[in-house]
Every structure is written in C-alpha cells, then in structure tokens.
Write a structure and sequence with these properties.
Blueprint: E1 8-12, H1 15-29, H2 35-46, H3 49-52, E2 55-62, E3 73-86, E4 93-106, H4 116-128, E5 153-156, H5 190-193, H6 208-226
Parallel strand pairs: 4-5
Antiparallel strand pairs: 1-2, 2-3, 3-4
C-alpha cells in the first residue's frame, strides 16, 4: 500500500542516518572501491574544512519516527557564499548572497517509483528558500520543522534527464521546480597566454597564507567580471 506523502517530512540526518545514506549509494557510486573504503573516503572528505560546516544531509522520513534508519530517500545541500548580478538602470549590481549546491539525491531501488524523491525535492525548496508567499499545500501536511531560509538560488546536475527536477517545485504546480540550463565551457590556451614556453613553467607549493591571498584576489576578479 503506497505511503501517504503527508505522513513524511524532510529532516537533517543524524550521524547514523548519514552513514546509512552512504551505504545505500555505494551500490551505484562506489567506482570500484570496497564498502569500507567508500565509507572511509566520505568520512574524511566530509570532515575537511571546505565541507564540515557547509554540507548537510537530509532524509525523507516518517513524521512519527524522523530518526529511523528506514527512511525513504536522502540528499545533500552544500552551502556556499555566492554573488548575483541584478540588472538595474545603472547596469548590473553585484550582491553577496548564499547559494546551495544540491547533491547525492538517492532513492534505494526498492523505494523507487513511489514519488519519494520528487516529494523530497519539493520539500527542499521550503528548507533552503526564504519564507515564501506561496501557501504550503495542505495535502503535504505541515511544513518542514528545520527551515534554513537563506538561499538566493540553488544548482544541481541531473543524471535522470531534463524534466524530473523541473517538476519538483514548492507546490503542486507543474514545471515550477529547477530551471533547465545548457552547459557552458571555458578554455584557456596556455601556450598562447603564457609569456614563456609551457615546458619551462614549474609548479610551486603555496603556503596556506598564499592560497588565501590567491582566493581573495580571484573572488575580486569574479565580481568585476560579473558587472
């Protein structure tokens, strides 16, 4: 008998649920690693400075048992500082904002075809977006209890085709989810750009201070190019 979607909601994963979500995805994303190495790799990666305070795992779970390991599906959000360039009469105005990368959307094979992943991604809008003027659908039950509400935009990459995520909007209106965009590529011809032959260029290990300085300079250039 299909589960009533209103009996489910989206919750930040417990430590045990994080491990379970990785065990599930191992089946399709292990790339030849053993389960032990796969779990250890993620444990180390998610504890790195770039991820520790910024990546959150979410699970779609029953409202009456949100910490269960028998949750329906899971995903991750990756919070990052970002910029947007908004058109004004004086030209583009660059603003510092918060953006999210959406990753690791996974439903175990035995739970597919029941609408769980689509419902999870619909609820995710209510987790990361600022308080919306759109009324939360009563058919979904109560809104999620752990909203963040600071995203100006989010980005994800799809392996399931161009339409699935476009149907995962913040309400029951078709096509109000993520907007499909084409990809872009930028290439630099180093042989043409460098003042010396590429064969004579040698690498240099930078200190943490030098890396931070390079990051700051690069961030300034990105803002200038966005105008």
């Amino acid at each position: 008998m299909p589960t009533d979607l209103s009996s489910l909601s989206l919750y930040p994963a417990t430590d045990d649920q994080k491990i379970e979500s990785r065990r599930r995805s191992y089946v399709e994303w292990n790339r030849g690693l053993s389960l032990e190495h796969y779990l250890r790799r993620d444990e180390l990666m998610y504890d790195d400075e770039h991820a520790r305070e910024y990546i959150t795992t979410w699970v779609l779970a029953p409202r009456d048992d949100p910490k269960t390991l028998d949750f329906m599906c899971s995903c991750e959000t990756f919070r990052r500082p970002a910029i947007v360039a908004k058109a004004t009469e004086k030209g583009p105005q660059v603003q510092d904002v918060i953006g999210y990368g959406i990753a690791s959307v996974f439903t175990p094979e035995t739970r597919r075809g029941k609408g769980y992943a689509k419902h999870m991604m619909r609820l995710l809008h209510w987790i990361i977006s600022p308080p919306s003027t759109v009324q939360f659908p009563s058919s979904w039950g109560a809104p999620p209890t752990s909203p963040i509400g600071n995203a100006s935009f989010s980005v994800l990459y799809s392996d399931v085709g161009p339409t699935f995520y476009s149907h995962c909007g913040p309400d029951n209106t078709p096509g109000t989810g993520w907007t499909v965009r084409g990809n872009r590529q930028t290439r630099w011809d180093l042989h043409a750009e460098l003042p010396v032959p590429l064969s004579s260029v040698h690498g240099e290990i930078l200190s943490e201070e030098q890396v931070n300085e390079l990051w700051e300079d690069d961030a300034k250039i990105i803002k200038v190019e966005a105008r």
